[in-house]
Design a protein that fits this description.
Strand order of the largest sheet: 1-7-6-5-4
Distance between the termini: 55 Å
Radius of gyration: 25 Å
Number of strands: 7
Largest sheet: 5 strands, antiparallel
Strand content: 15-25%
Shape: elongated
Length: about 230
């Protein structure tokens, strides 16, 4: 689970994820205090920014991110403890320069994924995918009404979310395939909104086709709601 930096700074939220034994990767604030082991095996409480400043240059590895524009970052994974979470967790200090003094942008991430998986490259590569999570929420809310529900009970909410997720997945798949989309349009459907327009057109056509053959069913349904035709 990718979580926003704001949620990552919320201890209650992290504890809930830990309680449910969910795997996560999120951000932390630079003033968050952690406990690291010293050379004398004693725990030392220190702010994340002070920890980053104290690390030697050799602790950071250069990682290239293959985004729209290639970007190089310097990453140092460190095992620390955070109160009140039990056990050690991996944090990653990510900078846009090879030294803390030269860096103008420093991020701090935390994960409960095992250190055999949560390497420096895995952490920054995985967190870079968070942008697509935001794209999903923007499109699902703006185009498919993810947050526009009129129900209150849990079962109905789940049904609403499932319908939205299914529609979103289908539309996204529709933009990625070349065979299916040509049945719905005579033009390329390369964007989410283009595929959504084709999806709506197809659904409207199928509803009208169904309605022409099932007028009695539709009239009976409306009658149960108190509506009749003159």
């Amino acid at each position: 689970m990718l979580i926003d930096a704001g949620y990552g700074n919320n201890t209650t939220f992290l504890l809930e994820l830990e309680k449910r034994k969910l795997k996560y990767l999120g951000g932390l604030a630079k003033n968050r205090k952690v406990i690291r082991e010293t050379q004398t095996n004693k725990g030392e409480e220190i702010r994340l920014d002070k920890l980053a400043e104290s690390l030697p240059v050799e602790a950071f590895s250069a990682i290239q991110l293959n985004l729209d524009k290639p970007k190089t970052v310097w990453v140092a994974p460190v095992e620390v403890e955070l109160s009140p979470i039990e056990g050690k967790r991996t944090i990653a200090i990510v900078m846009n320069a090879s030294t803390f003094e030269q860096a103008s942008d420093v991020d701090y991430f935390i994960t409960n994924i095992s250190d055999s998986v949560a390497t420096a490259e895995w952490i920054v590569t995985t967190y870079a995918q968070r942008n697509w999570v935001e794209v999903f929420y923007r499109e699902a809310k703006g185009w498919l009404g993810l947050s526009e529900y009129q129900v209150r009970d849990y079962r109905s909410l789940i049904r609403h979310f499932i319908l939205v997720f299914c529609a979103y997945t289908f539309i996204l798949w529709h933009t990625k395939t070349g065979g299916l989309r040509r049945r719905w349009a005579t033009k390329p459907l390369n964007t989410f909104t283009e595929a959504l327009d084709a999806f709506r057109t197809a659904m409207s056509f199928r509803f009208m086709e169904w309605l022409n053959h099932n007028r009695d069913v539709f009239i009976s349904y409306k009658a149960t709601l108190g509506f009749v035709w003159g």
